[in-house]
Design a protein that fits this description.
single chain, about 210 residues, mainly alpha, Cytochrome Bc1 Complex, Chain D, domain 2, 2 domains, 9 helices
Length: about 210
Amino acid sequence: MHTKQTNMNLLLLHKISVWLFLLIYIIKTILLFTNNTSKLASFSKAIKVPEMIISTLFLLTGIYQFYLLGAIKLFQIFKLVAIFAAIPLAIIGYKKANKALAGLAMFLLLMSYGFAEMARKKPYLTSNTTLMVDGQPDGQSVYMNNCAVCHGTDGTKGYNGSADLKKSTLSNDESISIILNGKNNMMPFKGTLSDEEIKAVANYIITLR
């Protein structure tokens, strides 16, 4: 429980640092594009230390999330590329009062947010080879390839608010419905997994209780 709460706290810290990071860059961009260069210089000087702290928290907590999961999504790769391209462009753009570079940096940061939103409902880049038993999908194999990233190998991981499957009281039909259509931060697997794979993993989930 302590580990889960720590992970949730770090995820919250990451989200807060992301929004503060974006807020700082939005303010800088507005000041630059409204030709308030003196105010931009004053703001940059006043916010220098907090900005360094926020940027460090933003990057470290983000990296930790990928380490915690041990997996990544395609759009998350695009997000990382956009962020790491935007930061040096922003530093140079604001320092040199170059609107083109600052604008491009802001565009990339906003794109990274868009990529993050697009990634929410996409599967992780993990093995999708399902083992077959007597001609039918093996539920454990489907689970390990698609569910263990967030729920853990034993169903208790609970990443990003995912349910503790050991304590689940859902019926088989209810589990199938959630797997098909998704719920909260969980992506829908309709179209990603076959009906047979979904039934097999729903049956396997019951064995975790």
